[in-house]
Design goal:
By secondary structure, the protein is mainly alpha-helical. The chain has three helices and no strands. The radius of gyration is 23 Å and the shape is rod-shaped. The protein starts with a helix and ends with a helix.
């Protein structure tokens, strides 16, 4: 029983370490959100100059596509980590049936991690929406540039 408790304690330590890593990944997602806000402000400033906006729209679309791919990959990695954490929780429950308090703590940590993943997924959705809006704005800017060129002719 003591060995089982020791094994379960080791398992809890490993889960805590993984949760710390996920928390760090969540912090990086917040940093990405701040970077996204900076990019959106730059796009808004560029709207004042239609000629420049057309060029930035092409550059912005490439960056946005890379960001969507990167965020999608990060989300997939987080989901894989959640699956691994859930497997570890199941193993900890099997080994530590006598240590129900440890199992309850692990379940609470898992729920926290699931919420963090849900928050990150929500952030990805919001970012995708912003990218769509930026793409629409870039399209409108390109149309204005074309109209300007027509009027100049």
């Amino acid at each position: 029983l003591l060995k089982q408790v020791a094994d379960a304690t080791t398992e809890v330590g490993a889960l805590r370490k993984r949760i710390e890593e996920e928390t760090k990944a969540h912090g990086e997602a917040a940093q990405l959100a701040a970077e996204r806000e900076t990019l959106l402000k730059q796009a808004s400033d560029a709207a004042a100059e239609v000629g420049i906006l057309h060029k930035r729209a092409e550059e912005g679309w490439a960056k946005a596509a890379e960001e969507v791919l990167r965020l999608g990959a990060e989300r997939d990695r987080l989901l894989e980590d959640i699956t691994a954490v859930q497997a570890e929780v199941a193993e900890a429950r099997r080994l530590g049936s006598e240590t129900s308090s440890a199992a309850s703590e692990l379940a609470a940590e898992r729920d926290t991690l699931l919420k963090q993943v849900a928050d990150a997924t929500t952030e990805v959705g919001a970012l995708r929406k912003r990218i769509e809006e930026e793409t629409k704005a870039h399209g409108e800017a390109a149309q204005l540039a074309a109209e300007r060129e027509t009027l100049l002719k």
